[in-house]
Amino acid sequence: MIFEETPVVGAFVIDLEPRGDARGFFARAFCRKEFEEHGLNPEVAQCNLSLSTEVGTLRGMHFQRAPHEEAKLVRCIRGALWDVVLDLRPDSPSYLLSYGVELTPQNRRALFVPEGCAHGFQTLVRDTEAFYLVSSAYAPEAAGGVRWDDPAFDLHWPNAAERVLSEQDRNWPDYARPS
Questions:
Q1: Is 132 noted as a catalytic residue in this protein?
Q2: Helix or strand or coil: residue 10?
Q3: 66: pLDDT confidence band, cut at 50, 70 and 90?
Q4: Annotated catalytic, 62?
Q5: Which among 17, 41, 43, 90 could bridge 71 via Cys, Cβ 3.0 to 4.6 Å?
Q6: Sign of the C-alpha dihedral, residues 87, 12, 72, 62?
């Protein structure tokens, strides 16, 4: 695997390193040892699959509060999506910075989202599926989020004729910096 650092400390774009022949190729999509060597949490407690049927579906920006923080490894297995990580760790040198990357089955890229960061994505085509590994089981009492268009952040999203959001994602309150 090829690990590309992003401006968000601890977040990486991960590309496959295919080994091919006439039959096709083989590549590791996850390796505990390589994650550990890059200082990334290799735990997998849950695997999630998300299907979004409409173009412009925006899911996010979600996170889990302590002690249930979660790291995620996100991959698009059908369609195309714009995936975004936002640093909400007050002690991080990249606090409040975000980074986005296009994920598709064709480019086979993944985004690693570290604990303490919010995560979200917007679909670029109909019938988009995301598959992600999560380091901690979902804890509803620890679920949190920030708005995709909160003026406290410089989040960049692809243009969409219409955005499809849940009521919850549409109505997260304005972000308040921790005191």
A1: yes
A2: coil
A3: very high
A4: yes
A5: 41
A6: positive
Number of H helices, E strands in the chain: 2, 13
Catalytic residue among 95, 119, 132, 138: 132
Mean pLDDT, residues 92-117: 98
Place of tokens 């979902």: 138
> Which three-class secondary structure state does DSSP give residue 80?
coil
- Please, what are the domains in the chain? 2-17+28-167 (2.60.120.10)
Contact 131, 47 (CB under 8 A): yes
Rg over alpha carbons for the chain, rounded to the nearest Å, is 16
Output the CA torsion sign for 149, 154, 159, 165: negative
* Residue among 110, 142, 121, 127 nearest 31 (CA): 110
Residue 117, token pair as written in the block? 């960061």
| Candidate list 38, 62, 68, 156, residue with the active-site label | 62
For 52: left if phi > 0, alpha if psi spans -120 to 50, otherwise beta; the answer is beta
Residue 19 has pLDDT above 90, yes or no: yes
Q: Is the alpha carbon torsion for 146, 148, 151, 157 positive or negative?
A: positive
**Half-sphere exposure at residue 17, Cβ-oriented, CA atoms within 13 angstroms:** 9
Handedness of CA 131, 132, 133, 134 (dihedral sign): negative
The gap from C-alpha 110 to its chain's centroid, in whole angstroms, comes to 8
